[in-house]
Specification:
By secondary structure, the chain is α/β, with parallel strands linked by helices. The chain has twelve helices and eight strands. The protein has one domain: Alpha/Beta hydrolase fold, catalytic domain (Rossmann fold, 3-Layer(aba) Sandwich), CATH 3.40.50. Strand 5, helix 3 and strand 6 form a beta-alpha-beta unit.
């Protein structure tokens, strides 16, 4: 698999399709880029699709030092992926952890973004202290019990169980995706990236100034992300919000046809409109 030098580590990524327009996919915690298989298969015949493993996950490097992980570092990693694979910009699609990373990149580096897709994004923003306590508990469990027992534990948490409990193949995929990572990478990400990221409410002023075309998606069963999705759609100018019925947090896996159709329609609209204006593009 191609490996990208991101400074202090290497990131593993895939490129599928040959279209001039690029879609970059940023995965959720605590899985890997393999979660995007339904999207790559459906969209690569029409688009160039890039999927990568965040630091600490899958086949990317997992630094042993906790200080090597942070929300800001995750944003820098995504920026490095874009610079290497999409020098003319790309549409970024992130889910959950990946959505928060994509959103912060759009706020800090809008010149790299042609469009933004935020799926199941913003969980934990209503009660950051409680969320931080929960993810710190996940980190401690991973470090003390190992990645296999962590996978078994986390798949019982409702937000992950809704997909894992759908059947044997779904549970096996999630277990394999989680255990493909190093326990330290998962733990340090939980503590420093999930636990250290701002509440989306802290970005309200910047969100109101965002000019990047934006699509927000959430599964109807994922009430926290539906609430945050509605907030993001109200706050980001001209953002569109779609709630997918009868599914939960992993909306791209639970309803791939609906998810892919929404993404394809958004990509068509974004490409027809041309690159968004950004002062950085005129320099």
């Amino acid at each position: 698999m191609p490996m990208l030098d991101a400074g202090d580590l290497s990131l593993c990524y895939d490129v599928s399709g040959e279209s001039r327009e690029t879609l970059v996919l940023v995965h959720a915690f605590p899985v890997s880029r393999t979660m995007w298989k339904p999207q790559v298969e459906a969209l690569a015949p029409m688009r160039r699709v890039v999927a990568y493993d965040c630091r600490g996950f899958g086949q990317s490097d997992a630094p042993s030092s906790e200080e090597a992980y942070s929300q800001a570092q995750s944003v820098d990693d995504l920026s490095a992926v874009l610079q290497a694979t999409s020098p003319n910009g790309a549409v970024i699609c992130g889910l959950s952890m990946g959505g928060n990373i994509a959103l912060e990149l759009a706020l800090s580096h809008p010149d790299q973004i042609n469009g933004l897709i935020l799926a199941s994004t913003g969980s934990g923003s209503d009660n950051p202290d409680e969320f931080r306590k929960r993810v710190n508990g996940w980190a401690n469990f991973a470090l003390t019990q190992g990645i296999a027992r962590f996978a078994e534990m986390i798949m019982k948490v409702p937000v992950f169980a809704e997909y894992a409990d759908r059947g044997g193949s779904e549970r096996q995929w999630m277990y394999d995706a989680i255990t493909s990572s190093d326990a330290r990478g998962v733990a340090h990400t939980a503590r420093r990236v999930l636990g250290g990221r701002p509440s989306v409410y802290e970005w309200e002023e910047s969100l109101g100034q965002l000019t990047v075309p934006t699509l927000v998606l959430a599964g109807a069963h994922d009430e926290p992300c539906c609430k945050m999705g509605a907030y993001l759609a109200r706050t980001i100018p001209d953002a569109k919000f779609t709630v997918v019925r009868d599914v939960g947090h992993f909306v791209n896996l639970e309803a791939p046809s609906e998810f892919n159709a929404a993404i394809a329609a958004f990509l068509d609209e974004t490409e027809a409109a041309g690159p968004p204006f950004s002062p950085a593009r005129t320099r």
